[in-house]
Amino acid sequence: MKAVQLIGIGSPFSWDRVAWMVLKTIQYNPVIKNLIIKNKLQFSLLDRPNVQLLEHLYPEKINIIIDAVLLDAPFGENIQTKVDNGFITQLQKLLQPGYSTHGINLADTLTLGFTLNKLPQKLYFFGFNISNDIHCIHPIAKLHLFKRKIIRFLQDTI
Q1: Rounded to whole angstroms, how far apart are CA atoms 36 and 116?
Q2: I want to staple 53 with a disulfide (CB 3.0 to 4.6 A). Which of 4, 49, 59, 119 is the partner?
Q3: pTM of this prediction?
Q4: How far apart are CA 149 and CA 60, in angstroms?
């Protein structure tokens, strides 16, 4: 059983704290509690880390980044993928131009990590779309589904 590092990226503002909310509540799930007790799961909550994110990625662990994203899609739509060069290129195109709550955006940070060969082999990304939230009738229900998707992924991966 390989150890997992869950990294929630965000800020204390509005929906940008979605990853923090997920990680703070996910630890009460019985499956997750068991993994924490066995030291197979660790959490990091990072406040707009920019390139410092690279310091929180561990090559010996499965690393999962969770972040809010702005996509031209309905609120709560999400991305789940293994991070590789193709995904980084796609992320650059998907993110709305000129917008980042983190200074240097995640795609730029991952590009730098890829270029410097600093990305771990097992790196995954879960993004929760926070645009168009005024049209969403049940935002917490969407967040709950996103959380369940992450738990399911952990169960299948570990």
Answers
A1: 31
A2: 49
A3: 0.87
A4: 24
Measure the CA–CA gap between 55 and 108, rounded to whole angstroms: 15
Tokens of 80: 């789940």
Cα distance between residue 20 and residue 26, in whole Å = 10
Which residues on neighbouring strands pair with residue 9, listed in sequence order? 46
Strand, helix or coil at 34? helix
Torsion region of 117: left, alpha or beta (phi above 0 gives left; psi -120 to 50 gives alpha): left
3-state secondary structure of 126: strand
Nearest to 97, CA basis, from 121, 120, 71: 71
For residue range 17-67, what is the model confidence (pLDDT) as tens digits? 899 999 988 988 898 888 888 888 999 999 988 889 999 999 999 999 999
